[in-house]
Design brief:
434 Repressor (Amino-terminal Domain), Rossmann fold, 44% helix, 17% strand, transcription, Substrate-binding domain-containing protein, Peripla_BP/Lac1_sug-bd_dom
């Protein structure tokens, strides 16, 4: 079996550099490539068991997301895995269903199994990171922040809400409602505040009932859209603050026979399916995969011993298609 010294000689680097590459420490992309190419040629496999005993942690990252069926979190998970694999780490994916009790069980397992670190989108503001924190394991919050002092990477959700609503106003819609996620979640609050900022500044019609809270899933979007359509003076457009709720809203419009040319829909996120009603839709692209890669990079830096001050990285969303017109 090849040794670390043989890999170093073939790659033209020091044994310490080889060690840093396989321990997930910061090394230039060129040196990473040289080391991994040499290791592959020689059939070199790092001794994971020895390293785990020495470091008292595994080479496994725990990723906790609220709903893996949501394409946003699927893309985010892919970004995390891609980056982790580049540094020789594996990823365990846990689906919390936005359930704090389920989330806590997974965090306790991550601690007991000595996983190297955790990336999570918290189920609530009351997330309990005590077990992980007691071991000194790094944590990165993704998409939503936590009350704990940890690194975070998120989307500028308020700006995304502003962009979605502005696209509808610029297209000529004047009674714009909002279907937001559950109240009390940071992401929900920021996105609907973006909607509120625009409808207030542009002086569009806002009636009681125009803000609907729903779960983040298709059934929640459908129920909220049906409630909006039952208002005495229903909206002529709606901002939906995630993609699955948008699908439910579009289904409700189709089921109620709404004229597809006269109703606007803005979606924060990209629609994962082809839908039957050809309604006017603007999509705000959320950089989910980039979000995952960034979170994984930040975590790997901490695992490698990075001691710089805590960081919060904010990524921008963008309109995914040209503005609408009536």
């Amino acid at each position: 079996m090849a040794t670390i010294y043989e890999v170093a000689a073939l790659a033209g680097v020091s044994p310490a550099t080889v060690s840093r590459v396989f321990n997930g420490n910061t090394v230039s992309e060129e040196k990473q490539r040289l080391v991994r190419d040499a290791a592959q040629q020689l059939g070199f496999t790092p001794n994971k068991t020895a390293r785990r005993l020495r470091k008292q942690s595994s080479e496994i990252i725990c990723l906790l997301v609220p709903d893996i069926e949501n394409p946003f979190f699927t893309a985010l998970a892919r970004g995390v895995e891609d980056r982790a694999q580049e540094s020789g780490f594996s990823v365990v994916l846990c689906n919390t269903d936005d359930d704090p009790a389920k989330e806590l069980r997974y965090l306790q397992i991550a601690a007991s199994e000595q996983m190297a670190g955790v990336i999570l989108s918290p189920a609530s503001d009351e997330v309990d990171l005590g077990a992980i924190a007691s071991l000194g394991r790094p944590v990165v919050a993704v998409d939503r922040t936590t009350p704990y002092p940890v690194d975070a990477v998120k989307i500028d959700n308020r700006a995304a809400g502003v962009a979605a609503t502005t696209a509808l106003v610029d297209a000529g819609f004047r009674r714009i409602a909002c279907i937001a996620g559950p109240a009390g979640i940071e992401e929900t609050e920021d996105r609907y505040l973006g909607w509120k900022q625009v409808v207030t500044a542009r002086k569009t019609v806002v009636r009681d009932g125009f803000l609907q809270h729903a779960n983040f899933r298709v059934d929640g979007g459908r129920a909220a859209m049906n409630a909006l359509l039952k208002l005495a003076q229903p909206p002529d457009a709606v901002v939906t603050t995630n993609n699955l709720m948008a699908i439910g809203a579009l289904q409700a419009l189709h089921e109620n026979g709404i004229d597809p040319e006269g109703f606007g829909v803005a979606v924060l996120g990209e629609l994962p399916y082809l839908l039957p009603p050809p309604v006017s839709v603007v999509q705000v692209r959320l950089p989910a995969r980039h979000l995952g890669r960034t979170a994984a990079s930040m975590l790997l830096e901490r695992i490698g011993g990075d001691t710089q001050p805590l960081r919060t990285v904010v990524l921008r969303a963008e309109i995914a298609r040209p503005p609408l017109s009536l």
